[in-house]
User: Which sequence fits this backbone?
């Protein structure tokens, strides 16, 4: 008589082996959200073996799941009999699994794409198969790419020496603000200023020292402007400040603060205190001014009037 030990052990089917070994999560839910299947990926990442999960409502084992969202998603597959999908960009994860990427990637949990597939018996949906794909690497790469593009865009908008807006970006913002002013009215002013006798500083101390002066001036003015203002370098030693929602009188008050912040405190260059002054011209959008270039031209004319009148002063035009 042959003992039970001699009975052949049934081999798993190829489909069972594939489901167990694939590198993504697979689990199956019935209409009551009970778990009918739970593969090795889900076991390894959740810490729950199939026998602990199968036959129980998925929300009992994982109360942190987005209950309303997941129930709607599964029910829509039962009703429509069609696939559904969720990207990590819409919902970063379904299950809060750990990932195996470096912590420097800026991602706390495994980023997941989810597919919801109807399992049919004839024309009836009898269960929904959900797959979980680990796309953490893809999400990190995309975030890094977006950050790189954003930095490139920021560098393209910034003056390389001072770090403030360059002329291209300033004029783009001025165009936008002038269009807004034409549509809604209100106040819009701008200031142009440059450093008096800047060539003498370069000639006496060298261009490296001149660059130091430009950076210090840019920092002083940056510390004074509001968040909604746009401060940029127009070229050489000339700067521009756009002041949305600001009447010209108030703008000239800002001009005086800028002028004094530059003139009252010498800038140390190579151990020497260099006195620096600035001339400021102001102008504002008003009825009869056809475009933003006219505002720039009026501010420029006011600036040169300030220089003709002796420099280290503020002059308004308009």
Assistant:
């Amino acid at each position: 008589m042959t003992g039970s030990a001699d009975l052949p052990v049934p081999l798993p089917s190829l489909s069972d082996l594939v489901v167990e070994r694939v590198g993504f999560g697979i689990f199956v839910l019935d209409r009551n959200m009970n778990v009918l299947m739970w593969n090795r990926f889900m076991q390894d990442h959740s810490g729950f073996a199939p026998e602990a999960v199968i036959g129980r409502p998925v929300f009992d084992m994982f109360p942190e799941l987005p209950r309303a969202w997941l129930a709607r998603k599964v029910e829509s597959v039962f009703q429509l009999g069609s696939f559904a999908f969720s990207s990590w960009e819409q919902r970063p994860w379904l299950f809060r699994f750990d990932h195996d990427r470096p912590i420097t990637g800026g991602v706390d949990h495994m980023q997941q794409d989810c597919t919801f597939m109807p399992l049919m018996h004839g024309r009836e949906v009898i269960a929904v198969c959900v797959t979980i794909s680990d796309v953490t690497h893809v999400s990190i790469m995309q975030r890094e790419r977006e950050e790189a593009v954003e930095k490139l865009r920021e560098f393209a908008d910034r003056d390389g020496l001072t770090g403030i807006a360059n002329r291209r970006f300033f004029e783009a913002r001025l165009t936008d603000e002038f269009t807004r002013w034409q549509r809604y009215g209100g106040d819009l002013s701008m200031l142009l200023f440059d450093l008096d006798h800047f060539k003498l500083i370069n000639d006496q101390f060298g261009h490296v020292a001149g660059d130091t002066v430009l950076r210090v001036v840019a920092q002083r003015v940056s510390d004074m402007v509001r968040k909604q203002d746009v401060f940029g370098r127009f070229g050489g030693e000339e700067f521009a400040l756009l002041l949305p929602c600001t009447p010209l009188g108030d703008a000239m008050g800002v001009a005086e603060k800028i002028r004094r912040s530059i003139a009252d405190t010498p800038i140390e260059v190579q151990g020497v205190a260099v006195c620096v002054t600035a001339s400021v011209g102001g102008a504002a959008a008003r009825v009869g001014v056809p475009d933003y270039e006219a505002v720039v031209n009026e501010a420029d004319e006011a600036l040169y009037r300030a220089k003709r009148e002796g420099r280290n002063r503020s002059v308004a035009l308009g």
Remarks:
- The chain is about 40% helix and 20% strand.
- The CA atoms of residues 14 and 52 lie 24 Å apart.
- The chain has two domains: 11-142, 158-316.
